[in-house]
Amino acid sequence: MEHTDWFWRPQSVIDSGDNLSPDWNTFSMEYVYDDDSGYLTAVKDGTGHEWWTCALSDYDEQGRITGFEQGNDVSTVVDFNPETGLVEGIEVSDVGVGSQDYGFGYDRLGNLTSRSLDRTSQSSLSEACGYDALNRLETATVGTTTASTTYNAIGNIVTKTGISGTYGYGQNNAGPHAVTSADGVAYAYDDCGNMLSRTEGTNTFSTTWASFNKPSRIERGANFSEFTYD
Q: Which SS3 state, helix, strand or coil, does residue 50 take?
């Protein structure tokens, strides 16, 4: 059960037995907000233990969170580019363990071109991303390993590293952008574009849809789940 304030912000969450206990079977959460700004400043359990805290000074002028602490003494600082608003860095510090520093680079259109991870206890990682003229991700390279993606004339993925063969479209009552085959899996759709079946080898997962396009039954062999709506 969730309790909200007059602004429909969650105030607390308790189990169906109305229990307030740190036990995971009867877990509860309380949300604390600043009265003036309305910003969330703390998340506590039923015993008052703080699982997450954020000082008002850790909110910037745009209302973005630039820093917070978790109940296990892990603190996080987020650095935003003042002109674009994009995240440029995230520093995570764990008392007694060390820190992890994440860095992000972008092109002038806002596409992510690089990201890095520097760790005090493990080796560092870096990734570079490449895009085509339509700003679609084409390559992602970590060290000497590159994952690639190709597209057809209408923007559908044709090949992707890690998926054998090519993607198929348009068969089995599918629209032009609905995947009908990929990596040995076949898909079929109804006239509304809802997926009717997914076949992987000898296993077929089938879905029955209600008239209002919500699933009413999902089955595989003798196993099934059914759904009803009000």
A: strand
CA–CA distance, 130 with 138 (Å, rounded to integer): 6
Contact yes or no for 115/103 (Cβ under 8 A) = yes
Beta-bridged to residue 129, according to DSSP, are: 140
For the record, the structure tokens of 65 come out as 């969170």
Q: Are 168 and 182 in contact (CB under 8 A)?
A: yes
Pick from 117, 57, 130, 51: which is nearest to 90 by CA?
117
What does the block give as tokens for 205?
A: 């997962």
Instruction: Return the amino acid letter for 32.
Output: V
Domains and CATH numbers, the chain: 1-58 (no CATH), 72-146 (2.40.128), 152-230 (no CATH)
At residue 97, what is the residue type? V
Q: 81: phi > 0 → left, psi -120 to 50 → alpha, else beta; which?
A: beta
pLDDT in tens, the chain (230 residues): 555 555 566 655 555 455 544 444 556 889 999 999 999 999 998 888 999 999 999 999 999 999 999 998 999 999 999 999 999 999 999 867 789 999 999 999 999 999 999 988 788 999 999 999 999 999 999 999 999 999 999 999 999 999 999 999 998 778 999 999 999 999 999 999 999 999 999 999 999 999 999 999 999 999 999 999 98
Question: In the structure encoding, which two tokens stand for residue 69, read together?
Answer: 């602490």
